[in-house]
Write a structure and sequence with these properties.
The chain is α+β, with helices and mostly antiparallel strands. The chain contains 13 helices and 19 strands. The relative contact order is 0.19.
């Protein structure tokens, strides 16, 4: 991609459709003696040929001045603040005024409870981390004890739920679940074998679940996951990006050996009739060899099935609305495919990142990759699903502003974009993490190379500090990982436009097209103003949330990883001064947007 007016270093300025020119300072000044300054690291403007302006200041100074000018049509002025550090910081003091020294007064909009919630995010949101000691020995064996299994084989899959009541990173106990299952389908393509198992209580013969699996359903799954042909199934599309899900390694005293088999188990996950909302998952405990057999399990390896396994909710695949008949074009059937693509990334991630490369990717990054994979496979030439974007693409064009889409991950992001980046919340708050990580992954793909950036992130990154190296390929000149967060937020507010510059694009009025290893991929354009979210009080949000100046003035501190925009001026014309004062200049990244 061509580099367009991106200046790296302590300052980054992006302006559309005009070359940056170092202009001499004008003699005009405010009543305080402040001189107008059009240096590119301090000045942002719009004119007849420049429909929007973005200035990002990553500046290690306690005080700083920014100058904004609207020379033609009136614009709205937003100031964004991002805490790129690892601990909470005091909110920087921001004063916006017209350049003739008339202070811009905040409006008196009622301050919402959002202020209280953003201030105590650190205490209310605990990052659930499960630390599993890696003590794998290095001797190589290759074996497949299950290659002789045939349809009708019955086994009990051992499974469990981690109980982590203290949320301190340690496993307290494991609740045991057993899924008595029968092998219902075997497909072999080349040297790869897919086995589909169904829990006996979920099978259409003698099953007692509310929604039962039929041969038609597992044929649908098998044909989409692994089938004859080239680059025509989930297995091909995903392994072309990341590599194989399992293979040769040096830890087979502790991990199962190399063989080419994948198992999908359809069961009533957690024996709860689908009440907890878990559609499916991959858990690397099954890649481990069993270390002990006990009735009261205390470790992950005690419940290993010593296979490469997905678990998928059977009731979800088979679900139909009252009076309807099951169709492979139904929402739940198609969403099950999307879930398989999501979990397949997790499966491959364990082998490619952890086992082969010795990395331990943070949860937020692992989940970002899985949702991005869903997005990438949702196009009509592949799975033709809604995916996390919430709608099925036809021509690659975004949906119109005001379409009020309420499905997918974006609506919750519309309501709550100011959620911690580089963090994975637990419990009900995990939904906020899912929404933010999907949007961030969608942004990275559309601006840094589609499937190639996913490959780089999985193979090279474990967390935020690794992002610059993972993103630095081609002509990418964005030097610091934290800069991508302000760029992402600018891209969201500019997503109604189709003429936005590189590194801030969500919408190009059609498909984002890519090729990896000679194979095509494409992504739909997105318009964040096409979504809506209704909160528990019935209030409807139809555009990305930004703070009022009254709300912003009440924020005393910003938790790590949070970005938020405040709208300071509506229908702005003329010249304005933005004065900044911060006690944490190394953590504050400030962005000014004119749109």
């Amino acid at each position: 991609m061509n580099k367009k007016r991106i200046i790296t270093g302590r300052f980054i300025t992006i302006l559309l459709l005009t070359a940056l020119t170092l202009l001499s300072c004008k003699e005009g000044s405010s009543g305080s003696g402040l001189k107008w300054d059009e240096s590119p690291e301090k000045y942002v403007y719009t004119d007849e040929s420049t429909p929007y302006g973005v200035l990002i200041v990553d500046n290690a100074e306690k005080e700083y001045d920014i100058f904004a000018e609207v020379q033609s049509d009136a614009k709205d002025l937003y100031v964004g603040v991002y805490n790129s550090g690892t601990t909470s910081i005091t909110n920087p003091e921001i004063e916006v005024s017209e350049f003739d020294s008339r202070k811009f007064l905040p409006d008196q909009t009622e301050i919402s409870s959002r202020i209280e919630r953003i201030q105590d995010n650190n205490s209310r949101l605990a990052n659930r981390v499960i630390n599993t000691e890696k003590s794998w020995n290095r001797t190589q064996t290759i074996e497949n004890p299950y290659s002789s299994e045939v349809e009708g084989t019955k086994i009990t899959f051992k499974d469990g739920e981690l109980v982590d009541s203290n949320r301190d990173g340690y496993i307290d106990s494991i609740k045991r679940y057993d899924y008595e299952s029968t092998l219902q389908k075997i497909t072999t393509v080349g040297d790869k074998t897919l086995k589909i198992w169904v829990e006996d209580t979920c099978w259409h013969i003698n099953g007692n679940e509310n929604y039962l699996i039929t041969p038609e359903m597992i044929d649908f799954i098998g044909e989409n996951f692994l089938t004859e042909g080239t680059f025509n199934d989930i297995y091909d599309w995903v392994t072309n990006i990341y590599g194989e899900e399992w293979g040769v390694h040096n830890y087979t005293d502790d991990l199962i050996g190399d063989y080419d088999e994948i198992n999908i188990v359809f069961a009533d996950i957690m024996n709860d009739d689908m009440e907890d909302g878990v559609v499916g998952y991959f858990w690397a405990k099954d890649n481990c060899k069993i270390t002990s057999e006990t009735d009261e399990t205390v470790s992950e390896t005690d419940i290993s099935n010593q296979r490469i396994v997905f678990y998928i909710e059977a009731n979800y695949l088979a679900y139909t609305e009252a009076g309807d008949t099951w169709s492979n074009q139904g929402y739940y059937a198609k969403d099950t495919l999307s879930t398989l693509a999501h979990e397949f990334q997790h499966m491959i991630n364990f082998y490619q990142a952890s086992v082969i490369r010795g990395n331990e990717p943070e949860t937020w990054l692992n989940e970002l990759l899985s949702m991005a994979t869903e997005d990438l496979l949702s196009d009509p030439d592949k799975l033709n699903t809604d995916g996390p974007k919430g709608f099925t693409g036809i021509d690659g064009k975004s949906l119109n502003t005001g379409s009020n889409i309420t499905t997918g991950r974006i609506p919750l992001y519309i309501y709550w974009p100011d959620f911690p980046f580089n963090f994975w919340a637990s419990g009900d708050y995990a939904l906020f993490s899912y929404s933010l990580m999907y949007v961030y992954g969608a942004y990275l793909m559309r601006n840094f190379g589609g499937p190639e950036v996913l490959q780089n992130l999985q193979h090279e990154a474990t967390g935020a500090t690794d992002l610059p190296a993972a993103l630095s390929f081609g002509n990418n000149s964005v030097a610091k990982a934290e800069i991508t967060i302000p760029l992402l937020n600018a891209a969201v507010l500019l997503s109604q436009r189709t003429d936005v510059e590189e590194y801030m694009r969500f919408n190009i009025d059609g498909w984002f097209k890519y090729t990896l290893n000679g194979h095509p991929y494409k992504l739909n354009s997105l318009n964040f103003f096409a979504y809506s979210y209704t909160d528990s009080t019935g209030s409807v949000y139809t555009e990305p949330y930004v703070y009022t100046t009254a709300q912003e003035k009440e924020i005393s501190n910003i938790p790590a990883g949070i970005f938020y925009f405040t709208e300071y001026v509506t229908d702005m014309t003329g010249r304005y001064h933005i004065g900044l004062s911060s006690d944490y200049p190394d953590a504050d990244v400030v962005e000014v947007l004119l749109k």
